[in-house]
Amino acid sequence: LLLRWRRRRGLWGKVAEAQQRQELSLVRMEAAARRFREQNPSVDVVSILCLPLPELSKKLRDGSLPPDHVFYAYVGKALQIATETNCITEYLQESETQLRKAKLTGMQGLLYGVPVSIKDSIDCQGHDSTMGFIKYLNKPAAEDSVVVQVLRRQGAIPFVKTNVPQSLISYDCKNLIFGQTRNPLLYTKTPGGSSGGEGALVGGGGSILGIGTDVGGSLRFPAAFCGVCALKPTGNRLSKRGVMAGVVGQKAVAAAVGPMAKDVESLALCLRALLCEDMFSLDSTVPPLPFNEEVYSSTQPLRIGYYETDFFTMPSPAMRRAVRETKQLLEEAGHTLVPFELTNVDYVIFNFCVRGMFADGGTSFVKRFNGEMEKVGMGMFFWLAKSPHWLKTLLSWIAKPFVPRFSSIIGSMRANTVDEVWSLHHEIEDFCHQFIAQWKKLNLDVMLCPMLGPALGIGYPGKLSVAVSYTMLYNTLDFPAGVVPVTMVTDEDEEELKGYKGYYRDWWDRTLAKAFHGSVGMPVAVQCVALPWQEELCLRFMKEVETL
Predict the structure, then answer these.
(1) For site-directed labelling of 9, which of 85, 101, 134, 237 has its Cα 20 to 30 A away?
(2) 47 annotated ligand-binding residue
(3) Catalytic: 121?
(4) What is the domain range of residue 538?
(5) Is 168 annotated as a binding residue?
(6) What is the pTM assigned to this prediction?
(7) pLDDT at 437
(8) Is position 352 within any domain?
């Protein structure tokens, strides 16, 4: 008992130190922003913060806007949003040194002078990548991740790291070290996750470009919940070297690194900058595919597949309306829309997503929590992962007649033999080819899909792991998928929500209805999807949706 008490005291000590560092970061940001304001009282910060990224970067490159004006404008705004939402974990003070060097060396790179925020789990030299775990505190990264190296070479200035949920396997944003991040649009709502700090900061206007990761919707949830845009590329389009993963080694569900910004043109500019020789030479496992301008700037009418529901998670009234209204606008603009029939999404979620992520019975996931004081927002998943095989089998059998979805999840979290894992991977490949065959048969260019929304109340994502069905499908298929906000929740949507029952009418469906509640005025997005390696076409479609 004494040893355990001492250990816990030691852990609390580390947490207290990390929280002090976070506090000190905000103090330093405040001092830096104040010093700049005092020395440059005539700088119009508001007009700088209003500039979209393409325009801002053009002004930085042609010299009409000094990089320090932009940098300190965003440091000040980021501080304000961090104070309101608790989204920043650390200020990268070396960014001020990089800024001074940039002024001396002149305008180099597509993102010259652009301040960029970085998700906690993406390595920045000399800083922790904690994933919300105490054990990873005081273990600074030895070097920058490849994506951060390339950003720096393109002239961008990484200036803050942002908060994540413990383990990253969550679409809320809370951990024991830095606490809960709130949605900048409504503090009682989650900003989404796991790139939740990015969503809050970009959504609140404190960062013009953020870099996050996505293994089940971790870029798309925060963007949709906070009313901004994001792109999850094909898993290997951008380098993952130096990027921490929630479950290491699993190959069933593809993770990806991607950008988040206020508009689609900013995402395109970021991809243009990242898909360069530096990226391909620093990580030779990334295919050397530069950004395809011709595809992105094309104005040819598109043939677009669409669906309003996956028949697994019943869409909220606003989600359904978002797809219908977008479909109508696209048709009026001369595009062709074709219904796409989704089948067996329940099988995909349980057998490919859950079973694929936890094919070892959850052993490696549970190991991550060894020595941690608390499993924040991990309730059911952690408990199931820890349970012995016989108990999972028994619970699955007992639950089947009453709560079939719960039974399927338990059954999917058993340990698999190597033979079973190979068979699973083969089955996922087959499913992917069948999906593409259906796509090609309809002669589609892209797909318009629902995106979970509006933002759920804080704490709800931990109880609603099943609601990842709309996003996780495209991690399993490894298709590029982006989100674009298209509407806001109306009083009518809120009224209609009272009749929400769900497809299973189980505890999860009842809880989801409560989680959506009280969201009038909150943004709702749609998902835009393309075939693997077609990021430029995906962005072109997103741009079309955004414009309409």
Answers:
(1) 85
(2) no
(3) no
(4) 297-345+422-547
(5) yes
(6) 0.97
(7) 98
(8) no
Active site includes 42?
no
Q: Are residue 41 and residue 165 in the same domain, yes or no?
A: yes
Residue 152: its H or E element: helix 146-153
The CATH number covering residue 531 comes to 3.90.1300.10
What is the tally of structural domains in the chain? 3
Is 371 assigned to a binding site?
no
Residue owning tokens 């219904």 = 339
Q: Model confidence over 204-245: pLDDT tens digits?
A: 999 999 999 999 999 999 999 999 999 999 999 999 999 999
In angstroms, the CA 330 to CA 72 distance is: 40
Whether 217 has a binding-site annotation, put simply, is yes
Which structure tokens are listed for 164?
Answer: 């994540």
List the catalytic residue out of 77, 119, 232, 262: 119
Tokens of 331: 């048709």
298 is in an annotated binding site: no
In angstroms, the first-to-last Cα distance of the chain is 64
Identified catalytic residue from 218, 266, 396, 407: 218
In SS3 terms, 235-280 reads as: CCCCCCCCECCCCCCCCCCCCEEEEEECCHHHHHHHHHHHCCHHHH
> Does an H or E element contain 483, and which?
strand 481-488
Which one-letter DSSP state was computed for residue 413? T
Q: Which of 25, 129, 167, 194 is catalytic?
A: 194
- Please check whether residues 446 and 501 belong to one and the same domain: yes
